[in-house]
Design brief:
two-stranded antiparallel ribbon; 11 strands; 9-stranded mixed β-sheet; 8 helices; Spore Coat Polysaccharide Biosynthesis Protein SpsA, Chain A; 269 residues; transmembrane helix; alpha/beta
Length: 269
């Protein structure tokens, strides 16, 4: 049995010019298909879009190591990579099936297109994340100083892989890894990939309790803490919490530096 089916959709007014194709990873029977169709009716991220229908490891026999939802999701991402490489696509966008675009994507897309033209190499570009630590790129710092728009930040620590652009170089790099060692897509890319993010979220996801979230990596209790944090900010039902995380993640380093400076002054004088 084939566990995957690619359903192609063609548009003529794609939002992004520097992305060859979009893939929407959809687990069959999870109730999200109508929401996907609603999003793709209003937002055409690229001229070529594929919905990847995934039967899931419980209904379709996959590799023996795929025994929990996060591993099944990793396999779906890698399936998109292989399909994109077979089609000779360059940059691709992969969306998880709970994605929700903001109208801000129409204004942000030209800036991201320019970044993709100017920057080649292995990296991931997030259209939306829950960031915990970000720093401005050199270009963003330069642009801010000269009064120009600076739109892209280094995503150092974050959660969320629901809307990411993958360059051909990063796909090749990931496919060359021992894929059975990739146990959590989010954690793997936090550690192993250069990642950028737009200055504001252009695409959101909510964080209700799901079968997948039950199996998040809980080393040092991190996933349980994050679930508590998301619920605290109401992000299981609302996108409003994203504003806090984007602001906090950009300010934390300056705040720490100011505190160190003040402590140093106190100790000296």
């Amino acid at each position: 049995m084939n566990c995957y089916k690619f359903y192609p959709m063609r548009f003529t007014d794609g939002i992004f010019n520097e992305i060859d194709a979009t893939y929407v990873i959809h687990l069959e029977g999870n109730g999200r298909l109508n929401k996907i169709k609603e999003q793709l009716t209003r937002y055409h991220p690229t001229n070529q879009v594929y919905i990847l229908f995934n039967k899931g490891y419980k209904k379709c026999k996959k590799s023996p190591n795929i025994t929990i939802p996060p591993l099944d999701l990793v396999d779906a991402f890698l399936t998109c990579f292989k399909h994109a490489n077979n089609q000779n696509y360059k940059n691709i966008l992969i969306l998880e099936d709970d994605f929700m675009f903001s109208d801000a994507v129409f204004q942000g897309a030209p800036n991201i297109d320019q970044f993709l033209r100017d920057n080649k190499g292995p990296y991931v570009y997030h259209l939306g994340i829950v960031p915990y630590l970000q720093t401005p790129t050199k270009a963003t710092i330069k642009n801010k100083i000269t009064g120009k728009d600076g739109n892209t930040w280094n995503a150092l620590v974050s959660t969320g892989m629901h809307a990411c652009i993958y360059t051909p170089e990063i796909r090749t790099q990931i496919l060359s890894e021992d894929q059975q060692k990739i146990t959590d897509w989010d954690l793997f890319l936090n550690i192993n990939a250069t990642r950028y993010a737009y200055e504001e979220p252009l695409c959101f996801q909510l964080f209700p309790a799901t079968e997948n979230s039950k199996h998040w990596d809980n080393t040092f209790g991190i996933s349980e803490f994050l679930k508590w944090l998301f619920n605290l900010f109401g992000m299981d039902e609302s996108i409003q919490g994203y504003t806090f995380f984007y602001l906090f993640s950009k300010c934390i380093i300056p705040i720490i530096l100011i505190l160190i400076f003040l402590i140093a002054i106190f100790l000296v004088f």
